[in-house]
Amino acid sequence: MKTATAIKATGHGRVWRAALAVTAAAVVLASCSSLIGRSGGPNAAVFGGLPSAQVDSREHARIVAAYGGVYHNDRVEQALVPIVSRVVASSDRPEQAYQITILNAPAVNAFALPGGFLYVTRGLLALANDSSEVAAVLAHEMAHVTADHATERQNRARNALIVSRVVNDVLDGEASGQLALASSRRSLATFSRQQELEADVIGVRTIGNAGYDPFAAARFLTAMGRYAEYRSALTRRDQRPDFLSSHPSTPQRIAFAEQAARQFGAPGIGDRDRDRYLAGIDGMVFGDDPSQGFVRDRSYLHPELGIGFTVPQGFVIDNASEAVLATGVDGTALRFDAVGLARSVDLADYLRSGWVNGLEGDSVRSFSVNGLKAASARASAKGWAFEIAVVQVNGGATYRFIFANEARTPTFEAAARATVDSFRTLSQREASKLQALTIQLVKAEPGDTISSLAGKMRGVDRPQQLFMTLNRLTRTSVIPAGETYKIVTDR
To answer: Which pLDDT value is given to residue 35?
Structure first.
């Protein structure tokens, strides 16, 4: 969540719709940095600059705003320069100029817009284990551009939208209209899957021609699947990284990528360039950006705002740029954000001011939380039960908790109450100790094991599983002395 100075009051209707929206899977968002690549010149990659004239600048601005700002890291950018140069030079359209935006988001994602505008998240770069894997991702997205997939998908999506409007506005839900709508959506989904497979083949061919390990694509798809399992273990559900939502990683697709790679030879060929790439991401922020606050186990802590709270056992926190979201195993969803409210406004009156649909008026009460003014209320709307609370810190900032569940159960009410009761201000000493998680490199010493190296991780859940995922290890992997590995720590 952004700092208080960056948060604006949200319109009442939009707030309530957002409260409903927390029941859907949350996308973790943050900020970005730019890279323009062109093959053939003395400067194969130039950082900074604006989108090319071919790119819709409004769409670019929307994406940048949605991801919360700009992430700059010279070492990471310089690590990408030779990768971009080799991939572009070996692509089907080496004259094509690209701008690659590094999104400051912990989610694992990459996508393309028409005109050579590519996006890759910091989370994806952290998961990559060598230059060939990053090359595979970039080549895949460049294939979407060179094959005009983005333009074709926009046209198909526009047609699907037209069909949807006809069904909703004209046919009024008749059976024939529903069949037309379902057919249109199925056609778009099939078209997208075909595009992904085509981009896979083009991407593998491109990195193979560039001299990189052509099996990197299959290897990275496998890594994303393992990261999905790691995330699922945290939530006890099947919550996949964003990239796997739009780029489904199935065993069949991995096998397809391996088949394409075998056109170049057996596994073990091509450059991986592991050491240079790992040196490039050494020190890169992992997980939440410091400006968004920190998630540590089940607690959200924001040193700049000086606040924190803890969710109950079984909840998982997603720290988005516009709000903090959390989900529980019983289906409870939480949205925590800030609201622009004058200090003179009574918090109970604010709850009664009309922005909460289905408010149960007799449930509104005022109380204090760890010495801070607070108020809470219940509501029911559109089949959902809600618990809402607002808390005002002594400096005047007001924060809002919105809990939602399909059923009002004692467990739901207890979770809401415990979370609100945990809200507190941080001491200067506690706030000063909070540091961002970063990728750090460690060299294995004689006698080191997966367990001993994973024990160096700090601030993450299931450190051993994450360590193995980040470093492409299994429980039976041998740890050679002198080998470099990635860990995540706040030290």
So the answer is: 46
